[in-house]
Amino acid sequence: MLARAARRKLRRDAFRSPTQLAEQLTLPWLCPAQMRWAASVGPATTTTHDARRPRHGALSPRHETRSLATQADVQHAHTPTIAFDGLIQPWSSRSIHSPRMARLEPWDPATPLVLRESRDPPTTPSKFGIGGDPIELYQNLHACLRVGRMDRATAIIQRLTTMYSPTASEVVEAHNAYLQALFELAQQDPEAYSMATIEEWYDSHMVRKAIEPNAGTFVVLLRASMSLLEGNTRHRSLHKYLAMAEARCGSDVMDAINYSEDFDDHEWDALIRAQPDRFQEPPVMEQPTNKAYPIEMSTPLGTQALIDANILPNPAHSVKEVPQKGEGLIALKNALAVFDQTSRVPFPHEMDGSQDEKERAFAYMRQLQLEQDATEAATNRWKIEDEKLQELGIHGVLKTKPIQALMWQWYSALLPRLQKEYARVQQVLSAPTPQNQSDERHIYGPYLEMCKPEKMAAITVSRMIQGVAIGRKEHSSDLKISQLSSQLAEDIRNQSISDAKEKLLSARKKQRKQARRAMLDSLSLQPQGTKPEEKPTTRIAELPTDSFLKAEVPNAVKTRIGAMLIEHFLQAAMITVTVEDPKSGKTLTNTQAAFHHHVGFANGKRTGWIVPHQEILNKLMREPTHSVQSVQLPMVFEPKPWTAFDEGGYYTTSQAVVRLKNHDQAQRAYAQSAIENGDMEKMFTGLDVLSKVPWQINKDVFEVMVQAWNMGEGIGAMVGEKTGPTLPEEPPQDASAATKTAWRRAIVAYENERGGLHSQRCYQNFQLETARAFAKEKKLYFPHSVDFRGRAYPIPPVLNHMGSDFSRCLLRFANGKELGTVGLQWLKVHLANLYGFDKASLHEREQFAMNNLHEIYDSAANPLTGRRWWTKAEDPWQCLACCMELKNALESPDPTRFVSRLPVHQDGTCNGLQHYAALGGDTAGASQVNLEPSDRPQDIYTGVADLVRSMIADDAAQGHRLATMLKDKISRKVVKRTVMTNVYGVTFIGAKNQVEDELRGFFEREDETTEIWQAASYVASKIFLALGKIFNGAQEIQYWLGECGERISTSVSAEQIRRLRDHLDGKKKPYDSKYKNPKSVSKSLEKKIVKDIEAFKTPIIWTTPLKMPVVQPYRKPGTHVVKTKLQEIVVSRNLGNAAIDKRKQLQAFPPNFIHSLDATHMILSALKCNEMGIDFAAVHDSFWTHAADVPNLNIILRDAFVRMHSEDIMGRLAAEFKARYSGSMHKALLVQSSDAAKKILAWRRAQHEGEASARGARKAHKDAPFDELALEAQRQDLLNSEDLEMREQGLKMVTPTSIWLANQDPSSIASYRLARMGESKNTAGPKLDEVKEKLITAEAEHVTGELEASGTLANDISDADLLAAEEEMEEELEDESPMKTGEKKKARSRLTSTTVAVWLPLTFPPVPKKGDWDVSRLRESKYFFS
């Protein structure tokens, strides 16, 4: 049915009269059965251009002048012209993806992507800066090869060889990287390096040392043969290495060589022709012509004079600047200069092709220019400011010198210092001696050489000023040495890797692979099926090799580079301060340091800060600044499709497709493995769909905004020039101490509010400047990426559609659609929604617009000089945009034929609760969040407020003091924030604070603070109770998620258990098998091994319906101290195998899981919209499209939600958990008075017979040592043995785990975590016990049934041992002093004194039974999204 929607003509009722369609706003057409379609599809055509030119002579001995006809280097074909008659108007940049992308394809949750657990790697002592763990060595190798430090690279490879097993893939990867570097150097300097150099390394370092080559090795050797040799020598070398590859490595490696994307077209042509026994002769393609395609700009087009391209700035768009002393606005203008300085990018008139092709090439060239680093432009601006002052005779006087001029002065002083440092680094690295062995330049030198001193100096000055400008508060984290040094080094790294040539070459390689596979399939003379197939997802996958982070810089190196730059900056940055002598009246001048280094204490820790001179501080602090120098801007050319973890979006800068929280390595490893398996295909396609929607600046609204801005108006979110709080009046001298204290607090609040408003106005200044620069662009784009849960966000942060009303109103779709009759109606509904009239029926909303038509016309025609009706709207600027669009449509000859570009929003109703209601099958909850059909939109916030008011009224009738006080004060606004955030894990304290903020207006006296707190707690508890009554089934789902999360976060994996057993058996291997393990283990290393084995390191991981793995990144980071000349700096180490943060893992799991479902719904909807030819944009749970496409979008949104929740999402999650955590054990806490706990204590007492029965020993019996875990693992091995005698031995064994299995009692498991939706530790009551016992009892029955079926019921202990344990427990209770009345003990204290720990198999309760609500009823709901 949806497929037919993509092919339909204009709706049959598109031109019916409004009266005939008045009743259609009840949306009967949302029912698929009532829709009929007509089909008409045009053919799709594809045209490609290849601008590649041969780099050298013909490589093939068979055909010297022929070139292979492949699509290997074609970047983007011209977009097919696909006609969706009546549904969309074709546009050239549109790319319609396969319908398969929008389907939810089944996958087996029993075989999820599971990466083998990592261990701490070995480390090697540092000598001449070469040392550390393997990952750091790989990063060092990568840096050395990039800057041509081949001698150091040789030493690093030798060090890696001593650490790895010879068969480890990391060893051959290191050699391949070295061979590739030799090859590139030989191409640049044939006299210093040659084919003989490459062959000598291969023979002496690989062949003789028995390091097995792989396909990558032979690819480099073959490419070097083609490039560096001539004639028959080249021919013989080619055949030698091809024969060697086949003889030593087999056909799989041969196929990998032939499919390799590293060969360029001509090299690959020679490779295929050199194998006539394997392949037919490839076809010939024409030599490249002068038709250049914008992606492949190998011939510079900027040599001719610019011909006017009609992109000169409009004077009416000049934006009044906010006075600010920082460089943020200047840097932004420099970055946007490509739009104003038309001479920077010439229009490609000489290029062959159509005008559209030329414009796309022009857009691409300007996009590359836009992405280039603005550092040089910034330094030029600083220089100009300083030269102006020199001309005026102003020399270094601080009070009159703009900050840009000071920055040039500091830059000029810093640059020679860094040039000397750069030369010293080269000297130390080139001539290592015993005298300079400890020089830290050996450590950071190769990384420093990747960036030029000029750019380092500019980045340092900019980052330091930014840190001071943002870090206004004393001891701000922005001024910490540790943070500044890390940020500086990261800026240097980003600068060094922003190489357009490398990025474009990488993009071409990605696209060659598939084309070459298809070509060789048709040319192969071998039987089909011999080529290597894609490996299926395995049960346990290997972690990415240690080289996968090679482009990163170790934290310790970052810190050293940053500290060095800060040190030089402190010595270079000087200011001239002028003061007036109070006695003589003369003006005195003095040169002083602009910044100094200060060491103090923060939170009990010794910390270093950069402290600016007070005069600098005054100069900057009066005018807050934001630096956007390195910020990403919207694109003027279609973003690059995502093809790898860091390949997509921008063309010359790297962006990660998954935004890593806390730089979590585990999330990156899972994401990369999923990408390699093809699991992220739909996610990548969805991001490409979102990224390639073309936008425009809404010029009409922009001009009104600029006019209001320049007048200093404060309308809606726009901060007026004079907007701000009133300065509190200072009290008289004889005022009381309390009055003066209150005044000082008011002054602090005044300064904070004033500074915040000014900061906001500065940011809005940036947004308007960005809009001004893009105002004449026909199309602009927002590349997207996702967070670790799969939620999509635009990468450009300054101006995008996810911003506030201020930025949203500035954007509209670049593609237009005729409104049609239904579109015109939706445009009116949209206006009512924006105004705030969104709780009425759709017909009433349309009527609202018609009733205010005169106001709409006045707003559009006279936005600032009329009655300003639009300014009273909830979203005033978007309302103004809608007024203008509606006026233009109604004034057109035929409003239904008006081409509209305004996005119309369809908003969900508390989207998280919608997912919970669907998961739990909650009929009541579904009706409250508009999943159930109704005549009017339901409002969950009003529903909860009504229920809370009812409960408070009942309490007030019984004389409750707080209830009587709050009886008429509970509004929708009071409960809204708590209801909204409850589904995302808000704590009771957080809810209380939210309610307190809303109730504060009812309590005006200071002495009522206690009453406010009590009232907020009372109302928060009632809100939780109301939610519990509405969402009953959802409560069980949330409890189940929490129970699973708690068990996972207190578990140890099967790999840890195996290592524990091996360790106790004397098999002490501290490292993975790919490393060389030491023959003996020191005490310190053994202690480290035990600590690693016994740590809770298992994060909560699940797979979204789109097969994206989600790894919760909450871990306890390690730290290490880096000694620099400046100070000792503590650096955090975010390792992928560090211990998890149990509290954060547990609290974040339910909301993150719901977020991942929300993200899936959005991506599915985006994919279907793309298939249907509908422009789609999303702001989490608010989806946008053209007014004419709203009916289609509504169908798509409902269909995607129904398809998602028609599947067994919770059952699939349970199956995945069972498979993913198979063999794990978790540490459970049993109530001490339970039978199982008593018997476990008795068993432990018997095992430690003869030990003193002191109180400390008895308490030790309550813990579960890891020895018991190893013992249970031994029992499981015996039970699973095929030897009957060993199985019998296992059946006779008794362990604490077997005792639990024989005495399972669901009520004996203790838990003090947050229980369910609508409850907390403070409010949990009988319903908690009911839900808990229901789930645990179901689990106990399931486990017991399995044991009975297998005939392996666990052994119990004797009655005598049980009696002795009970007597011991009574003695212990007598020893414990009773708690004082009213004493509150912490949850951890209660757990340790009243519970007994035991290791249990990591199993999960059965999924709660779903309610009887049918999700398919959603298709008939008019207000699901509206």
Automatic annotation (TrEMBL):
InterPro entries linked to this entry: DNA-dir_RNA_pol_helix_hairp_sf, DNA-dir_Rpol_C_phage-type, DNA-dir_Rpol_phage-type, DNA/RNA_pol_sf, RNA_POL_N_sf, RPOL_N
SUPFAM superfamilies, per database record: DNA/RNA polymerases
Keyword list, A-Z: DNA-directed RNA polymerase, Mitochondrion, Nucleotidyltransferase, Transcription, Transferase, Transit peptide
Record bears the keyword Metal-binding: no
The UniProt record lists the keyword 4Fe-4S: no
Subcellular location(s) per record: Mitochondrion
GO cellular component terms, A-Z: mitochondrial DNA-directed RNA polymerase complex
Family the UniProt entry places it in: Belongs to the phage and mitochondrial RNA polymerase family.
Name listed for the protein in its UniProt record: DNA-directed RNA polymerase
Lineage start: Eukaryota, Fungi, Dikarya, Ascomycota, Pezizomycotina
